[in-house]
């Protein structure tokens, strides 16, 4: 009786389970099964039999097959349909068509590219063994290619991870280099600025000339701006030591400078760090609302100190539409300690503190 379900022959169950070629015979004829079984009996082959296309499809859905021996004539359809299905699937299963010599002669041109071979019934044992061996070699080559592709994919994934790590490290390094370059450029610029300023005031012993040169240097680097230097007179009071007028009228400048000396300058003198105001509300707060003119301005102020004693207060301000950039702030931070040192030097040379009758006249740019 022809079995209706797929089954494995009893002879192949005796083989080592590590056989490399898994073959599906799609044929319900016991004689054909017996002939095929004799050929594969001593080979590293696992043979599974299916009596119909439905049984074959069920077997292929549940188990991986390397080779399908498919009879052209099936009780439930054409074997060529199954070969075409295998060719269109993602499996690597090869197929060999089985048919009579008449089928071979009459239907050779209809064999699809999906079928890798064709063998006629009745079988010649040596020819069948040769065809299966050839198929086995093709399968082994295919498996080897698949293993190479999988290995290459693993290597590519690993290389891609390494590439990402290296790219990330390079990005970090580049960012560090950019930061270091910027810091070095800032330091070099500060060195150049301080060297230039030091050369300008070198051996200058006149206070008024020093104040003039300091203001001119600031304006040369900062661009057009209002600038003033205030000197302590008595107690917490300050008087104008020097002034450059950029955009204030003469009358408003006097009132403004007086307001700055009374309100803003003492507060800057007690402030430990350079003051850079860019916000209207901050400006009003520091001025105590005394000067509406200054409210929309940007301002830089810093103190020249010697042992916590304020020797001078420098104030730069201009309209907020022309804000001070970072280089101007860095410039003021660089020359502030030099101004402090130089003023302290003048005091030591003249053996006196800056007093009321110090320079209090303003000059215009």
Q: Mind sketching the topology for me?
A:
Layout: E1 7-8, E2 21-26, H1 30-40, E3 45-50, H2 53-62, E4 67-71, E5 73-74, E6 77-78, H3 79-88, E7 94-100, H4 101-107, E8 117-121, H5 125-201, H6 207-222, E9 226-232, E10 238-244, H7 250-269, E11 275-277, H8 280-287, E12 297-306, E13 309-319, H9 326-350
Helix pairs in contact: 1-5, 5-9, 6-9
Quick synopsis:
This protein is an alpha/beta fold and 365 residues long.
Description:
This protein has 365 residues and is α/β, with parallel strands linked by helices. The protein has nine helices and 13 strands. It has a six-stranded mixed sheet, sandwiched between helices. Strands 10-9-13-12-11 form a five-stranded antiparallel sheet. A two-stranded antiparallel sheet has the order 5-6. Helix 1 links the parallel strand 2 and strand 3. It is rod-shaped and about 125 Å long.
């Amino acid at each position: 009786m022809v079995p209706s379900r797929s089954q494995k022959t009893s002879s192949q169950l005796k083989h080592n389970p590590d056989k490399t070629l898994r073959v599906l015979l799609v044929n319900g004829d016991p004689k054909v099964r017996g002939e095929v079984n004799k050929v594969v009996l001593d080979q590293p082959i696992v043979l599974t039999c299916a009596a119909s296309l439905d049984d074959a499809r069920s077997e292929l859905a549940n188990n991986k097959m390397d080779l399908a021996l498919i009879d052209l004539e099936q009780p439930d359809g054409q074997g060529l349909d199954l070969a075409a299905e295998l060719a269109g699937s993602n499996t690597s299963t090869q197929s060999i068509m089985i048919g009579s010599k008449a089928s071979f002669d009459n239907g050779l041109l209809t064999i699809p590219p999906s079928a890798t071979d064709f063998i006629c019934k009745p079988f010649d044992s040596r020819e069948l063994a040769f065809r299966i061996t050839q198929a086995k070699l093709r399968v082994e080559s295919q498996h080897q290619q698949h293993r190479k592709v999988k290995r290459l994919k693993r290597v590519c994934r690993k290389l891609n991870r390494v590439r990402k790590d290296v790219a990330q490290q390079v990005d970090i390094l580049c960012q560090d280099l950019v930061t270091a370059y910027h810091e070095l450029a800032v330091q070099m610029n500060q060195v150049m600025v301080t060297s230039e300023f030091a050369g300008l005031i070198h051996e200058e012993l006149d206070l008024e000339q020093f104040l003039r040169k300091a203001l001119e240097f600031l304006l040369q680097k900062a661009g057009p701006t209002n600038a003033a230097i205030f000197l302590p007179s008595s107690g917490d009071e300050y008087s104008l030591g020097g002034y450059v007028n950029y955009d204030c009228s003469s009358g408003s400048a006097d009132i403004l400078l007086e307001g700055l000396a009374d309100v803003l300058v003492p507060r800057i003198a007690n402030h430990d760090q350079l003051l850079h105001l860019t916000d209207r509300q901050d400006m009003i707060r520091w001025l105590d609302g005394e000067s509406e003119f200054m409210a929309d301005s940007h301002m830089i102020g810093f103190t020249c100190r010697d042992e916590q004693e304020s020797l001078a207060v420098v104030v730069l301000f201009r309209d907020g539409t022309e804000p001070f950039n970072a280089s101007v702030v860095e410039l003021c931070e660089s020359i502030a300690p030099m101004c402090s040192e130089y003023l302290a030097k003048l005091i030591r040379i003249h053996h006196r503190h800056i007093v009321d009758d110090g320079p209090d006249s303003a000059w215009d740019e």
